[in-house]
Every structure is written in C-alpha cells, then in structure tokens.
C-alpha cells in the first residue's frame, strides 16, 4: 500500500525523492518522510504526519541534502498515523535507515527477542523491527545483513536500506510487494512504481521475490539470497511522463474518465496485433469445463459483469470469487478450469495468493493486468494487458473499462471457438465492441447534463443502485465508485431483491435510487421496482437505453446510445463515474485520494 523511493547518484537526493513521493502519494497519504546520508556523516531525517505538503513545509524550514536518500509515503497498518510512526525508520544505534512497504507478520516475536537484548523501540510499527534487526546483524557488510534480515522476516515487504558505514550504497529487496529499479546517467533509483522515476529515466528493471539490488551512483548489481550474481537487462517504459500528469484537469480521476474512448480503442486494437493477440489465439476454449474469475474491488465487479457475458454467449459455467475468499475456501477446480485473475496493478496481495492456490490445484491461469513486470504478469501462465497507461486516481475508471472490453472480446472468441455462434454473429458482436469508443465519446460530449444533475444530489444520506441481470452487475461498480469518493452510504441491489428487505431502507426525501435499464426484455420489471421506491418517497435517476415514457414526470433520465445489453455496462459505468465524481466535487472532497484508501492493496 505504501510508496517508497530511493536515490543514489550525483545530485541532491532530497528534491528527487520529494518529487517521486508526489507520484506515489496515491499509495498512501497518512504521513511521509525522507532520510539522507548527510554531509556530516549522520542520517538527516525529516518525518511528518499528514499529506506530503506538510513534509514539504518541514523541509523548507529545515533543509537537508545528500547524494543518497530514501523516502516514504504511508498507508498506516501498524500504529496510528504520527510523526514517530512515519518512515524512514532508523535503528537505535543510528546506523541503518529503512523504508518498508508491506506487513511483517512475525514482527512481535522479533521485537520481543530484540527487546530482551536491550534494544529500545521508538514506534508502534512492524517496520521498525527491520531497522533494529539490521543493526543487530550488521558486521561490516550491508548485503550480507540484508540477506540475513530477509531470511528472518515473515510476511510481505519491499525494502530500501541505507547504512552510514557504507554511505555510497543503497540496497533493496522485495517479497510479495512491487519494487522497480530505475537506471539513469546521473544515478540509480528504487521505487514502488514507474511514475516516481519517469522524469529521470525510462529504463527500469523489475525485481522478483527474494532478489536483491545493490545500487551505487555508477550502476546497479543484482543478487539472489545465496549472494549469487543475477543478470538483468533494463526494460524501456513506452509511455511518457505526460501520461502521469493531470494535463489541465482539476483531478486525475476526471482526466482518466475522459481518456476512456482512447483506452477502449487501444485495448481493442491490442487484440489484433502483438502479445494480446497471441495470448487469445493460444487459448483452447474446448479444454475448459469451467471458468473462475477472481479479483478484488472494482476488478471483482468487472468479473461479475463478465459472468453474464460468458454464460450467455458460451453456455459455460462461470464462478466469480472475491480473491480474499477464494484463497481460503478450498475451491473446487481442476486442470480443466480456467482461472482468470483481474488486477489493475498485478500486485494485489489476495489475487496473487488466489493465483498461486489455483496453480497448485492444477488450474490454468490467465491474468488481466495493467502493469508489465508485475507479479501476476510474471506468474500466470498467460497474461492480457489493458492498454490504459498509468492510472493515478485511487478510484479506478479507465482500467476498469479496459478490463471489461478485454473480457467481452475473450467471451466472443470463446463462444466462436466452442461453436456457440456463427461467424456472422461473431463479426456482428465484434463490430459492436469496436463501436464502444465512439459511443463513449458521445456520452462524454454530454458531460454538462450529468454534472448539473449531480449538483442536486449531495444532500442525500443514502443512494441505492438497482438493476436487473447485467444492469445489476454494473450497479455494483456504480455504488462502489460513489461510496469510495463521496463518502455517501451506497448499496447496489438486484431489482427483484428490493421487496426481500432493502426497501425498508427507503426514506422519504432522504433517499435517491439510481436505476439502470439497458435490458429491453426486463424493462417492465425494473420500472415496477422504480414505482415501488417512488411510492415510498424516494427520488429516482434512470440511466440506460430503455426509457419508459410513462415515468418521465416522476424520474430524471440520462439516456445512453443504443448498445447490445451485454456490452451496455461499458456505457452505463461512464455515466456513474461522472455522477460520482461530480457529487464528490460538489462536496469539496479530495477525489484522487479518498480517505483510508490506497491504489494498490498489497497487504491482506
């Protein structure tokens, strides 16, 4: 969850680290800190509770400098947000400094052992034990120390470690958390994600679990846990720094919503050439008797949508599982099961664990991720990449849309391969998918009407989303998006379930119901649900391509371009993203960094 960055080179590390932390703040923003090997032969450390701006103010009042340093932006797990619990952590001998992303599961045992040896701890964090343990093990060789520390730790970690006795060496190691190494002419970097270093270099190396990087200003060397050298060739990042900037928009979220037509086009095009094309052509649909889609958060909601598409088109059994549940349920899968793992970062801890569980049971695994070099991309048998570029806002928009369209394409290809549709039908559905970017542009050209309606909705205590069939599936994402960024209580229900309990929550004047209507054959059913909530005092916003003129005097309506119902989620979700965005904007909230949330959930 947290973001880490480190630099060793010819320039002052502090502005480079602070600038990098700005690109990583989506990973955590409870507190932040910087440590450098100062020119006085000691660590200079500045740490501050709160957003990065608070740290910048402290650094302005107390400037520090050095050619090697580490920085951290925190999402708290152990210990409340505070100056003391902020990273970097320094051992009690002031000899070793550490930044950490992850969770150390055996930190209590390690801490008790070290306290028995007279070592005093300053913070409540699990991370401090790493610095204290490293100082305890250190005997003049930092690489050897890091190997001993890594072997002692249980849990997940990405670490950046400095030692005063070796002031020109920065060491990094990872397990189950992302860490990249950036290589440039003026120095070397470690970082949790590429945007943190992209201003300085587009050449990066990806560490695998239990691999160690030793950085000096002259270059980077890599080792395994037996201290054997490893060979790594830097990869070139193909997107530029502008992709990770706001580009004149007030928030990254709005920029990323507006980028969706291009993302859809690029992702659709990716299956006609290159790696995605090869992966889809390599999949033998007939070898699978069951599909399991497992994911977390919005990616899970994409899986729920995909279940309806796959089952309708392929007549194949599909299960959708929360990865956090799948990993513990002893799932019934076999070598005839295709397990699809959906994750924006490719580093989601529960989804990685689910993937490993599926592989252990003999299933074939397919990843759908946005990050080349991520753990899922490396470990799944095959992987499809969403052509979305960097997504900075914590609440996903464009990556979700790219995940959906890849799942549509996969379902159509499977249906054709299984003989469930004619070539003509396949061409027709493929043409409808290809038309989605243009229809997304049409919706975005009417953004003012959505903004205007959203401005009237900030006073509601509860907002409910309802739909039938695939409209219910995408209602889950609409509700999640709203609660993530507006902090308004929101739930999604299948329309038919209203009378089985949820309708008791409808209160006069205080309740808005967002109803989705894209399934023509179920229009009467959803409109009946609308009448039920209207009669109890709720206000209703209807979104879809199936309007009932008889209700026009009672409800507000946002129409969508005509689209086959199986692909309608790609249009409905854009309206709901914009609606959620403008409700939150009208409340004056920090949309890109909603409270208590982080972009990439790399811990359980």
Write a brief caption for the model:
By secondary structure, this protein is an alpha/beta fold. Strands 3-2-4-1-10-9-11-15 form an 8-stranded antiparallel β-sheet, covered by helices on one side.
Task: Describe this entry's structure for a reader.
This protein is α/β, with parallel strands linked by helices and 604 residues long. It has 19 helices and 25 strands. The N and C termini lie close together (10 Å). The relative contact order is 0.09. The mean pLDDT is 91.
List the helices and strands and how they pair.
Blueprint: E1 3-9, H1 13-24, E2 31-37, E3 43-49, H2 52-61, E4 68-74, E5 89-90, E6 96-104, H3 107-116, H4 128-137, H5 142-152, E7 155-163, E8 170-175, E9 180-183, E10 187-191, E11 203-206, E12 212-216, E13 219-223, E14 229-230, E15 235-236, H6 252-258, H7 260-269, H8 274-282, E16 290-295, H9 297-314, E17 318-322, H10 323-326, E18 337-343, H11 349-360, E19 364-369, H12 375-379, E20 382-385, H13 398-417, H14 423-434, H15 436-444, H16 447-454, E21 462-467, H17 470-486, E22 489-494, E23 511-517, H18 523-534, E24 539-544, E25 556-559, H19 569-586
Parallel strand pairs: 16-17, 16-18, 18-19, 19-20, 21-22, 21-23, 23-24, 24-25
Antiparallel strand pairs: 1-4, 1-10, 2-3, 2-4, 5-6, 6-7, 7-8, 8-12, 9-10, 9-11, 11-15, 12-13, 13-14
């Amino acid at each position: 969850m947290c973001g880490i960055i480190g630099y060793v080179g010819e320039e002052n590390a502090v502005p480079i680290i602070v600038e990098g932390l700005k690109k990583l703040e989506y990973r955590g923003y409870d507190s932040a800190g910087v440590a450098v090997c100062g020119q006085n032969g000691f660590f200079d450390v500045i740490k501050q509770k709160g957003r990065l701006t608070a740290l910048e103010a402290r650094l302005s009042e107390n400037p520090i400098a050095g050619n090697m340093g580490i920085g951290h932006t925190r999402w708290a797990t152990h210990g409340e947000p505070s100056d003391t619990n902020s990273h970097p952590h320094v051992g009690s001998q002031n000899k070793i400094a550490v930044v950490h992303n992850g969770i150390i599961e055996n930190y209590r045992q390690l801490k008790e052992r070290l306290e028995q040896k007279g070592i005093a701890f300053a913070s409540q964090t699990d991370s401090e034990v790493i610095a204290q343990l490293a100082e305890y093990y250190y005997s003049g060789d930092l690489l050897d120390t890091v190997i001993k520390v890594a072997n002692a730790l249980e849990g997940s970690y990405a670490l950046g470690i400095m030692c005063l006795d070796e002031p020109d060496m920065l060491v990094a190691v990872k397990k189950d958390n992302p860490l990249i190494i950036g290589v440039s002419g003026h120095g070397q970097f470690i970082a949790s994600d590429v945007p943190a270093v992209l201003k300085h270099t587009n050449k990066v190396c990806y560490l695998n679990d239990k691999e160690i990087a030793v950085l000096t200003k002259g270059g980077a060397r890599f080792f395994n846990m037996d201290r054997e050298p490893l060979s790594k060739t830097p990869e070139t990042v193909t997107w530029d720094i502008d992709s990770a900037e706001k580009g004149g928009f007030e928030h990254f979220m709005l920029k990323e919503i507006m980028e969706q037509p291009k993302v859809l086009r690029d992702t659709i095009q990716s299956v006609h050439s290159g790696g995605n094309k090869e992966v889809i052509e390599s999949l033998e649909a007939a070898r699978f008797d069951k599909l399991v889609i497992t994911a977390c958060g919005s990616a899970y909601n994409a899986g729920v949508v995909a279940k309806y598409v796959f089952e309708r088109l392929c007549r194949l059994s599909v299960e959708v599982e929360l990865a956090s549940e799948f990993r513990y349920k002893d799932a019934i899968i076999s070598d005839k099961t295709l397990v699809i793992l959906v994750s924006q970062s490719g580093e989601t801890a529960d989804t990685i664990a689910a993937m490993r569980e599926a592989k252990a049971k003999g299933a074939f695994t397919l990843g759908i991720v946005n990050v080349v070099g991520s753990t899922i991309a490396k470990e799944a048998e095959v992987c499809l990449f969403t052509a979305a570029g960097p997504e900075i806002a914590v609440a996903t928009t464009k990556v979700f849309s790219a995940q959906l369209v890849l799942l549509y394409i996969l379902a159509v290809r499977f249906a054709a391969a299984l003989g469930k549709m004619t070539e003509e039908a396949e061409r027709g559905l493929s043409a409808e998918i290809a038309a989605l970017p243009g229809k997304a542009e049409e919706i975005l050209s009417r953004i003012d009407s959505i903004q205007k309606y959203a401005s009237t909705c900030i006073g509601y205590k509860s907002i409910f989303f309802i739909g039938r069939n695939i409209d219910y599936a995408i209602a889950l994402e609409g509700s999640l998006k709203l609660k993530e960024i507006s902090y308004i209580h929101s739930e999604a229900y299948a329309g038919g379930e209203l009378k089985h309990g949820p309708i008791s929550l409808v209160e006069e004047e205080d309740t808005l119901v967002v109803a989705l209507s894209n399934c023509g054959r179920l229009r009467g059913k959803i409109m009946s649900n609308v009448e039920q909530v209207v009669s109890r005092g709720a206000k209703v916003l209807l979104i879809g391509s199936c309007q009932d003129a008889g209700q026009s005097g009672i409800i507000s309506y946002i129409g969508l371009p005509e689209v086959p119902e199986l692909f309608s989620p790609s249009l409905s979700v854009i309206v709901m993203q914009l609606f959620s965005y403008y409700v939150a904007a009208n409340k004056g909230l920090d949309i890109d960094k909603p409270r208590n949330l982080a972009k990439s959930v790399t811990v359980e």
